[in-house]
Amino acid sequence: MKGQVLDYSVQANNGLISGADGNRYTFTGAEWRDDVAPLRGMSVDFEVEGERALAIYRAVGAGGSIIPGSKNKIAAGLLAIFLGGLGIHKFYLGYTGPGLVYLLTNTIGWVITIFLLGVPNMILGVIALIEGIIYLTKTDEDFEQTYVVGRKPWF
Which residue intervals define the domain TM2 in the entry (predicted)? Predict the structure, then answer.
């Protein structure tokens, strides 16, 4: 049967799928048959046994990037490469703390870092460039899982 993941809790290791027949089915993480964790809104194909979903597979072409409100890896990567020194890519991904580190170091921080020959600013620029390249080289599913769902703020 086809359906869509409504919810999945890593801590509880269970979730809920809305089937194409209009019914809802519970499942455990052990029934998930993909290397990318289930995400809300992901299309799936599964077998039904009573009110339980079994042998759940991610439907072809159902990457995490289809989720409404998700972040675009290309936008994040380009922001990191071209405006990374200001931390715009961090704000885009919702990481306010790391974004402020970039922004303050490369604006107000110049007054202090000028005595350090701007080395901290250059280091943050290189880190932003590396992050941009990492964002662009990850698959959509890996990017979504790592930076949107997993909320990993650095690298």
Answer: 70-114
